[in-house]
Amino acid sequence: MQKKIAVLPGDGIGTEVTRGAVEILKAVADRYGHEFQFNYGLIGGTAIDKTGHPLPEETVTLCKDSDAVLLGAVGGPKWDHNPPHLRPEKGLLSIRKHLSLYANLRPISFYASLSEASPLRKEVIQDADFVIVRELTGGLYFGKPSGRRVEDGQETVVDTLVYHRYEIKRIIELAFTLAEKRRGKVTSVDKANVLESSRMWREVAEEVSKDFPAVELEHMLVDNAAMQLIRNPRQFDVVVTENMFGDILSDEASVLTGSLGMLPSASISSEGPNLYEPIHGSAPDIAGQNKANPIAAILSAASMLRNSFSLEEEAKAVEAAVESVLEAGYRTADLAGGRTKSLTTEQMTEEIKIS
Amino acid sequence: MQKKIAVLPGDGIGTEVTRGAVEILKAVADRYGHEFQFNYGLIGGTAIDKTGHPLPEETVTLCKDSDAVLLGAVGGPKWDHNPPHLRPEKGLLSIRKHLSLYANLRPISFYASLSEASPLRKEVIQDADFVIVRELTGGLYFGKPSGRRVEDGQETVVDTLVYHRYEIKRIIELAFTLAEKRRGKVTSVDKANVLESSRMWREVAEEVSKDFPAVELEHMLVDNAAMQLIRNPRQFDVVVTENMFGDILSDEASVLTGSLGMLPSASISSEGPNLYEPIHGSAPDIAGQNKANPIAAILSAASMLRNSFSLEEEAKAVEAAVESVLEAGYRTADLAGGRTKSLTTEQMTEEIKIS
Ligand SMILES: CC(C)[C@H](C(=O)O)[C@@H](O)C(=O)O
Ligand SMILES: CC(C)[C@H](C(=O)O)[C@@H](O)C(=O)O
Fold first, then answer.
1. Ligand index nearest the alpha carbon of residue B80
2. Within 13 Å and on the Cβ side, how many CA atoms surround B125?
3. How many angstroms does the Cα of residue A172 sit away from the middle of ligand 1?
4. pTM of the entire predicted model
5. Which positions are annotated as binding substrate (chains A, B) (predicted)?
6. Tell me, which fold does domain A107-128+158-260 have in CATH?
7. What integer pLDDT is reported at residue B287 of this predicted model?
8. Nearest residue on chain B to A116, alpha-carbon basis
9. Which CATH class is domain B1-99+272-355?
10. Smallest Cα distance from A339 to chain B, Å
11. What value does the CA radius of gyration of chain A take, rounded to a whole number of Å?
């Protein structure tokens, strides 16, 4: 199989962890006889420094010409005081829009070998296994108007939460499709007791559920969901929610298992290549020190193999390789908890052997 | 001291727990020679059933004529399919607006005697002690437009997040004032990398901080805050945030210590009486069974004594009485974890002896 992969390392540890993921993809190509072509593009702070723009035209073109995109992370203190349109995050928001990445999928799974790393008691978190499906191109993130104005002599600021019905429909359909292949339960999270947008969300969820008789639909208010994630995370299978709620809940969920540095994500496009990236950020505090855990990026690459290239066997081989280094006790600093001697990014990557 | 207290039991266990709180307030009045007059009003589902409206005029008048308001809880499955303006929650949202309750204060504290009830490991949650200050009358909850429309032939829905600068300023000032009396740290939570409203929020926080040189100000993105609350809740002293973020984060925080049934809240008015209510909801599943934990309502009454009547000694007496029943091992069902024999709402109230 021949595939073109756009690699956007971005900022901070983004460079180091994507390097690890590319190594693994190369090993997969060798072992299984594929040809992956890697083309590099700029995004985020690095792109601002080199081109004056957080998402240069060429990067967009590169991505659109590719079969899949691998992203590292963006952001850092250096650009924190830039004006909004010149911030690294703007690059991320723009690429979501340009590539129509309407859904972000974050699988949260419990690693028995890492259970001491979780802030939750073992009996609460044990065997939790769910996916958060976050709407990624609508809602408060992109609605207009968004800005300041003077109202009755008062300085006022406004942001707008907008959804088209079709946007709600496609993300909820995606959630149901996923649930069909999993344990058959969708938890749709909204704030229908306050927001009009949530009432439409709930209505659409009910409609869509009629087409999936084998999947159970449950509605949960966002404040309750924030509690339930901690009280009883095992109740969830597929959680679907709008952009801002998803931002908050998926980050909350990502720390439950204590394996933030291990969690991949996939952003699904309605028309072009999907984008794969680790959940963690650019971690400026440890950037450039060869200390970052490459596993989240490597598992994002596995997700690419499965979801963009339908290479299930290859994806499983990567996941199995990760499992076995963990079981063998190898740890990067984030997982070591200060106790064991830890591996560098490069050493960890080397230990992950595709067979 | 003579005081008029409006009591709004509301729905479900609201009736039972406010009854407990009123008992305790009566005991305080007896013991310390005060005269508290209790006048009852309708709100929520019960009000809908009796008057056709979730917040009748008379209730608003009653509250405005009172020195403080004690609320139970609203809501229940009976009214879940009512149209939005005839839902119990609408009564709660309306009373916030009518009484200008712009700030909701939720102290989260760790009870050593209840540490087994927390989903978090003891070493993570131990000694956590912070207050969440949530803006309560602005943002997405009340902004217009909020509704459906057709745009380019597409069915579309919109909600609006609006803040006036003075609304942001007064809540942040309140947070700083609180922090001055506590450990001197304010964490202002926003989403300044995406929202215009958050950028104004951050700007105002910086401005206000100049008037409080002894208080440290830290900004935190809401997604990160959702993580930090679980990873390291002890880092927080006073957390201040806008309405919707506050709804989500304060509910998340309320389960950390495992003592949801113990947590009070105070809603502060810019012009009239404050309102005090337990954090927990109406708990329809156990309503009318004399099983609910009255402590959150009782501690809300203590907060009323302190914050509305400046009766510090009396407030402390209530809090001390609660501490000692817990230390003596008394538990309502929610805290008993199925292990010990548990007390009814009435029994627990009787055990809390004001001395
Ligand atoms: C960087 C930021 C704009 C972004 C978001 O809020 O979507 C990030 O938090 C994420 O979740 O990918
Ligand atoms: C009932 C609901 C409208 C309310 C809110 O969202 O404010 C509740 O969740 C709360 O936090 O008091």
1. 2
2. 28
3. 21
4. 0.96
5. 96, 106, 134, 223
6. Isopropylmalate Dehydrogenase (3.40.718)
7. 96
8. B121
9. alpha beta
10. 17
11. 20
